[in-house]
Structures are given as C-alpha cells and as structure tokens.
Amino acid sequence: MNKFCFVIHPLSFEDIARYEPGAKGKGEPILRKIMEWMPSYAAVHVTGVRTPDGRETEGWFVAAPLLPQQLMDFPREEVYARVLRAIEIGVELGAQVAGLGAFTGVVGDAGVTINARSPIPVTTGNSLTIASGVESLFRGAAEMDVDLATSTATVIGATGSIGSACAALIAPKVNELILVARNETRLRKLHERMAPGLPCRSEYTTDLDAAVRRAQVILTATSSTQDVIEPEHLQTGAVVCELSLPHDVSRRVAEHRPDVLVVEGGNMRVPGTPRFERVREPGSDFDLNLPPGTALACMSETMVLALEGRLEPYTLGRGIALEKVVEITEMAHRCGFELADMRAFDAAITPEKLAATRDAAHHRRCDSARAVVASGHVALTNSQVNRSGDTPARQPRQL
Length: 399
What we know:
Elements: E1 3-8, H1 16-19, H2 28-37, E2 41-50, E3 56-63, H3 68-73, H4 76-93, E4 97-100, H5 107-110, H6 112-117, E5 122-123, H7 126-143, E6 152-156, H8 161-170, E7 176-180, H9 184-194, E8 201-205, H10 208-213, E9 217-220, E10 239-242, H11 252-256, E11 261-264, E12 267-269, E13 272-278, E14 294-296, H12 297-307, H13 322-335, E15 338-339, E16 343-344, E17 347-348, H14 351-388
Parallel strand pairs: 1-3, 1-4, 4-5, 6-7, 6-9, 7-8, 9-10, 10-11
Antiparallel strand pairs: 2-3, 2-13, 12-14, 12-15, 16-17
C-alpha cells in the first residue's frame, strides 16, 4: 500500500482553533506569535480510503502552522524550511508522495523548489482542483438555467496556474471570456498568448468590478487574503464558483443576494470509509470544515497518486498542462472520487435552497422588467402630453 502526506495550515485566526482547540478565545497578537515559533507537526491520520476495486492508501495531514499572510510575508527560505520539515515528518511516518495545501502550494515558484529539495515527489494538487472547479461551475450554471453558449464568463486570478487553465477549459462553452488579474503586464501577455487559440470572443482587464458586472458565470482563483467579490457587483441569477482558500466571495453575498448561486468548486467525495483522526488526540476526528467523507480536490489528487502508484511530481509550477488535468480526472474517477454535493459559505446547498435561489432570480428579473416597462410608459406619457399642447413644454427664456 502506497502512503501519502499533505501539508496543511490554518486559513485565518478563527481557523486556528480547528488545529489547536486551546487557542480558542486568545487574542490575535498572541496567536500570531504562537504561529511564528510553532514547529510543523503531524495533525491528522487518514485511513479508510478505498477504491471500488479494493485498493487502499493511508496518509497524514502535516501542519506547517503559519497563517496565509505569514506564508506570503516571511522570508521565502524560512517558509520553505517549514514546509520541507512538514514533508520530512510525513516521510518519517511512511509517506511516499506529498501534497501542498492552500498557500504552501502558492508561495515562491508553486512547488518547484520544494519538490527539488524534498525527499519524496511533491504535487500542488492543482490539476484536480482545476477539473473539479470547472465541473462545479458548469453544474451550477445548469442548475440556474444559465445558457452557457450565450453567456459571458469572467475568470478572476487568470494569470495564476489554476485561473489560466480554468479559462482555457471554460472558453469552448461560452460566448465571451473576460480574464481578470492585478498585474496588467502579465495579464496582457497571457491574453496575447491565449487569444488566438480561443473559440470565443475574449478580452482582459484589471477592472474586477466591471468584469464581474458583465458576467453570468464567474470563476475565482486568487491568492488574495481579502474579499474580492461583493454583492453589488453581481448580475441577477449569476453563478460564482470559487476555488480560493480563504474564500474570495464576501459573506455579504449570502446575506444580500439570495438570487445568486455561489459554489465551492474544489471539494471531492472520497471513496471507501475515510476517517480523519487527530494524531494528538487519538479517537477524536479532525474537523476539515467539510461534510463527512469529503476532502479538498488538492488533497484528493495526492491520494489518487498514491492509489495509482504514480509516485512522481505531478502538478508543479505556474503553467499546468491541460493533458494532466484530463489524466488526473480519469484517474480520480477510476479510484472512485466524485464531485461533492454543492456547498457555499461552509454550508450545504440543499435542493430547497437551490430552488429558492432560482425563484429569487426569477422574481428579481420580473421586477426589473416591470420597472423598465413602467419607466418607459412614464416617458411616453410625458412626451404625449407635451405634444398635445395641454401642458406645453417649457420654452427657453428669452433675453
């Protein structure tokens, strides 16, 4: 049986309590200092992952306990050392392939240097994340009765490895594609490289708000630690798939836009009877902040490589070959991994919730149409009154 390890880290100050329950209630300054000196450690023992044909794998989630902003701000060599120590702990436990979770797969050169220094092959898991994200976006569009063939799609974070690959996979299904990123030079070069081969109209912009307002379907894959999409940006009935952790979509969307469907795109249902047991508290389960039997797609890619005996550096760097996205999707399906049920803002999207979202979009469209008709009627009435002479239009003042 091949074994794996996967490097994890808390995504926010609130998230630290999932790792260390004793941290709950402590202030941010002390938590930040604790994260600075806390060494990597084995946090979760993963068992029960079994394919339909009986193959099994076992693994460990090893914590490199730094917050996203710390991973981005600390000296790169210090971050590399933390991540490599986490992988070494996995190796000591028997792991033969390693995955990089969340910001550990973003920092520096997206896993290339870490893989070169690691005692075992490394993957970022981004290939399966891309596949699950695009599939989730298309599923959400179907549920909201969005006609992709006539739609405009916006990809936010397009210059990243995930965003650019997602854009290429979305383009054949839509009428227009808008690429969005912060660095205009990199964005322009990406568009110049992609545009000749795209089967739809395309453009690029750094104006995120304008690009979101024009789109019926939106995929976001940024490395931002702040909210990116706000409720006032979105069209009625829009579908947003987010692949980012921390989340890119403001929670205000859930409160103020019941007519918009937001889905988390990177969740997979794990085959078998998976258990995620806390290493330091045997017998208690680690809260992945996901439904039972579900894991992130990047975690799932690492498990798939172990199950398939593909002990190799699979997804690394800023450019991801679409052939690998197709291949890992086929391997995942062969192993019994499936797209998880729809979910957003850390809660399940039930059939009732989905129906309510469709209804809210329908009613909002009807209200908008009535408002347009009413305003047109008022304008027409005023014009007729002026022409009738009953209420003459005001004449310019004569001097």
